[in-house]
Amino acid sequence: MLNSGRLLRLAAVTTMSVALVSTGATTAALARPMAADGAKAADVRVQAVDLNDPVKKDIAMQLVSSAENSSLDWRAQFGYIEDIDDGRGYTGGIIGFCSGTHDMLELVEAYTATSPNNVLAKYLPALREVDGSDSHEGLDPNFTKDWKTAAKDQAFKNAQESERDRVYFNPAVSRAKSDGVRTLGQFIYYDAIVMHGDGNDGTSFGGIRKRALTKAKPPSQGGTETAWLNAFLDARKWAMQQEEAHSDTSRVDTAQRVFLNAGNFDLNTPLRWKVYGDSFEIS
């Protein structure tokens, strides 16, 4: 199961306020068009602005980074790497690729396909051996140093963004749009796939969605968007609580649920939220 959740050491966390002015689209660009032909309102909303919009996508990256890295500066995380003792080996990069969950292996393979002589290529045999475990065998002592070196290479940065989109972002947005939810719901799906993986067991994305279906229906099946996303977040919290490393559910309680309770289905700024006691704002 692909899984890239970040275990934040709460003892080291202090409350902080981060303000960031995002390059916003104009009101006209974000305005919801009227349904001139009598189309359903939900259909028009999905066609308007979704998470693929560059401004919205950057907001999504900042929101995830606030939980994964305690920072809105997601572009500063290409060189991040450490073992956070969550059973997944090394966690690194802008989305938390893990040596024990296959996505780090696929990342280095993709990087090597475009840059065969890169500094990480020599670790491919070891990454294949440790895949599915928390082992560092064949990676220590220089893997983390070489990762940071690779992070200075634009080709490695490109590979990280491409794999993030292929494995996490694009599938999440596609599934959310199929369920008839707007930008907020698309982000909620994306954050769930980032942490839990795009699998079908009980604590992966497929299992979370299946659990939510026992309580509500998505808009595509005649349900209301609010009821469906609340049911999905309830199921997401349950999945998080099954694992000690993810038992703090503030990224749901004091972030995503705040936006949902405010009816901010288009994920419009300003946004204010808290994660693990830290306060953030995108204005």
From TrEMBL:
<dbReference type="GO" id="GO:0005576">
    <property type="term" value="C:extracellular region"/>
</dbReference>
<dbReference type="InterPro" id="IPR000400">
    <property type="entry name" value="Glyco_hydro_46"/>
</dbReference>
<keyword id="KW-0732">Signal</keyword>
<dbReference type="GO" id="GO:0005975">
    <property type="term" value="P:carbohydrate metabolic process"/>
</dbReference>
<keyword id="KW-0378">Hydrolase</keyword>
<keyword id="KW-0964">Secreted</keyword>
<dbReference type="InterPro" id="IPR023346">
    <property type="entry name" value="Lysozyme-like_dom_sf"/>
</dbReference>
<comment type="similarity">
    <text>Belongs to the glycosyl hydrolase 46 family.</text>
</comment>
<feature type="signal peptide">
    <location>
        <begin position="1"/>
        <end position="31"/>
    </location>
</feature>
<comment type="function">
    <text>Aids in the defense against invading fungal pathogens by degrading their cell wall chitosan.</text>
</comment>
<feature type="active site" description="Nucleophile">
    <location>
        <position position="86"/>
    </location>
</feature>
<dbReference type="Pfam" id="PF01374">
    <property type="entry name" value="Glyco_hydro_46"/>
</dbReference>
<feature type="active site" description="Proton donor">
    <location>
        <position position="68"/>
    </location>
</feature>
<dbReference type="GO" id="GO:0016977">
    <property type="term" value="F:chitosanase activity"/>
</dbReference>
<dbReference type="InterPro" id="IPR023099">
    <property type="entry name" value="Glyco_hydro_46_N"/>
</dbReference>
<protein>
    <recommendedName>
        <fullName>Chitosanase</fullName>
        <ecNumber>3.2.1.132</ecNumber>
    </recommendedName>
</protein>
<keyword id="KW-0326">Glycosidase</keyword>
